[in-house]
Design brief:
Elements (H helix, E strand, L loop, with lengths): L3 E8 L9 H23 L4 H14 L19 E7 L4 E8 L5 H11 L4 E3 H10 L7 H4 L2 H13 L18 E6 L5 E7 L20 E4 L3 E7 L1 H7 L1 H12 L3 H15 L4 E7 L4 E5 L3 E7 L5 E6 L4
Parallel strand pairs: 3-4
Antiparallel strand pairs: 1-5, 1-11, 2-3, 2-6, 5-6, 7-8, 8-9, 9-10, 11-12
Bound molecules: aspartic acid (ASP).
């Protein structure tokens, strides 16, 4: 049976003219490390759900992406992270939102899925659940980077909130992370993790924590992980809508994903993209932004890493 994995590191990308070779190399190295880590699990006969978790954890550890270490800062100068995961076997799901002291929010979302009768836990409750299961307490300092602090100050000055990737023409642009995979038993899985948007207030939660909007996996149909301004993805229920098109209209993942990302989503001003994987392990990357950090290892074992939208 074929197996494959695809990952993203967020939609919207640093402008070409501002990308240095060193920075590009560092981003690509982390993307490659992530996709290879997931692929090794699949190659040794592991489950898609474990492959997507492992791939996302690598990106949560990298300061180059808006998830785990390197997450954007809230208006209160804190890190508050959201994550969700779905196993295509039986459509089991787990999610957490607004967690502040968990090094790998995706691991916690997985624990909610596997070890509770719930699907979605938030804030202090989610952290209590974690610490009861021996997740280590991670200080806020661990997640903090100077770049995110500068971005927050600039957003506060302008009175805006924004995606990590947008509105920083003179800054580095990094994003939310996610992975989709097919294992050699035909199981699909999807995972998404984020710090959300810079300068967010009032416990704002985006699509990345929401099953159906940011994450979906259904065996025999599709696995999807999204990235972009979450408010639009929530209102279009993007990941589940891609799945519905594949399930009911028998569309290819390319057709379903492009329909939504270039159609409904774009029409309402929703900038961003998604990664989708079908039941045969084909991946499609759809975006209406200038780029999306992305990588995949296909069923032939070939690794591809890309940044800009116009790269083929
Ligand atoms: N979708 C995320 C959110 O709105 C942000 C992102 O994808 O960068 O929280």
């Amino acid at each position: 049976m074929p197996f494959s994995i695809a990952i993203h590191g967020g939609a919207g990308t640093i402008l070409r003219e501002q990308m240095t070779p060193e920075l590009q190399h560092a981003i690509e190295a982390d993307l490659e490390k992530s996709v290879r880590c997931g692929f090794e699990i699949l190659r040794s006969g592991g489950l898609a759900i474990d492959a997507v978790t492992a791939a996302v954890k690598v990106l949560e550890d990298s300061p180059h992406f808006n998830a785990g270490r390197g997450s954007v800062l809230t208006n209160q100068e804190m890190v508050e992270m959201d994550a969700s995961i779905m196993d295509g076997r039986g459509k089991k799901a787990g999610a957490v939102a607004g967690v502040r002291h968990i090094r790998h929010p995706i691991e916690l979302a997985k624990a909610v899925m596997q070890d509770s009768e719930h699907v979605f836990l938030i804030g202090e409750g989610a952290e209590s659940f974690a610490f009861e299961r021996d997740f280590p307490y991670t200080e806020q300092d661990y997640f903090y980077t100077d770049r995110r602090y500068e971005q927050l100050l600039s957003m506060k000055e302008k009175g805006l909130f924004a995606l990590s990737e947008s509105s920083y023409p003179d800054d580095k642009k990094y994003g939310t992370v996610g992975a989709v995979a097919l294992d050699n038993n035909g199981n699909l899985a999807s995972a998404t993790s984020t710090g959300g948007i810079t300068n967010k207030k009032y416990g704002r939660v985006g699509d990345s924590a929401v099953i159906g909007a940011g994450t979906w996996a259904e065996n025999g149909v599709v696995a999807v992980s999204t990235t972009g301004m979450g408010e639009h993805f929530l209102q279009e229920n993007v990941a589940a809508d891609v799945a519905a098109r594949v399930r009911y209209l028998q569309e290819t993942i390319e057709c379903a994903a492009e329909h939504i990302v270039q159609g409904e989503l774009k029409a309402r001003g929703g900038e961003g993209g998604l990664i989708a994987m079908d039941k045969c392990g084909n991946a499609h990357f759809a975006m209406n932004s200038s780029g999306m950090y992305r990588a995949m290892i296909n069923t032939q074992g070939e690794c591809k890493i890309k940044i800009y939208a116009d790269q083929d």
